[in-house]
Specification:
- About 40% of the residues lie in helices and about 15% in strands.
- It has an eight-stranded mixed β-sheet, sandwiched between helices.
- The longest helix has 26 residues, at about 35-60.
- Strand 12 (about 295-300), helix 9 and strand 13 (about 320-325) form a beta-alpha-beta unit.
- It is of the alpha/beta class and about 375 residues long.
- The chain has ten helices and 14 strands.
Length: about 375
Amino acid sequence: MTQQNVVVSETKSGINWAITAAQKPPAGPGGYILIPRRRILKNLEINGGQRINAWIDSMKASSPTHVKSTPSLAEEQNSWILRHPSALDMFEEIMDSSKGKKIVIFLDYDGTLSPIVEDPDRAFMSDSMRKTVRKLARCFPTAIVSGRSRDKVYNFVRLAELYYAGSHGMDIKGPTRSSKYNKNNKAEAVLFQPASEFLPMIDEVYQQLVEKTKSTPGARVENNKFCVSVHFRCVDEKKWSELAHQVRSVLKEYPKLRLSQGRKVLEIRPTIKWDKGKALEFLLESLGFANCNDVFPVYIGDDRTDEDAFKKLRDRGQGFGILVSKFPKETTASYSLQEPNEVMDFLQRLVEWKQVSLRARSWV
């Protein structure tokens, strides 16, 4: 039986392995190295296993199934709050820093405007939250930036006067009727869709993932147009490894797609350099604030994907981010809020602050 070899470019191969000088096989024609096929398969298996383990560790870290109250945890919570104080407690300080600047509001949806629920199709926002966001949009340019498809978010929110950035900002549209922030009255005007060429691929991967994950109870696959979400909120933790293997078995055939982690969700999206931070920057530019020093963006979100927007604000040195979380998390946000009800309280205070400011100005 002859040993099979595989020709691999030493410089261009995407497969990494260690070969000592003594083990290194002789180079073939054109500077290529002849490597036994069995060795490649073994290395692929090892690398794949390491990647799966990393996925599972990440799933556990970002999606704890239970949190025990201990003295050390309380100390960690207090320390975290000192570094990321409540935006409600620090409201006056925040408003002082925004004086003389134009405030622009960016809001995530799930976990920010609506509670996290087991069935993603039932993540409804309350009527009181909707009324608050409507008032907010009358005071400041306001955008919803979500991993959900733009159409799904719009169906949840149902406010035509907002900007909507779905699929992590890969599908952006402006207000659908005339407003003080949409003076051209361009109904349903598409502002940006940087990943349109990926639509057939996303549909294909969605269908495959639906089929692959059927055997995992509780797994839910959602087509968000320019990305696919695999929800594991209702999956037993013992089955997370199985689910990660199922997702990887599909993704390994699609090198132009990448996987990221959210709160009990695996997100599959194109490898283009686009995220919520880029979407925030694009919307600021669309609103005419690209090179303004007097703009004050406020971004509120609860998910790991919102960190791109928090970091963008920190890099710009403008505005601030607010993380919605009951537990300490690594974040570049400046402030925190614990849950959607606190988000609503903060937004209501913003509206009241604006109304008081306008009344004071009218008396001058």
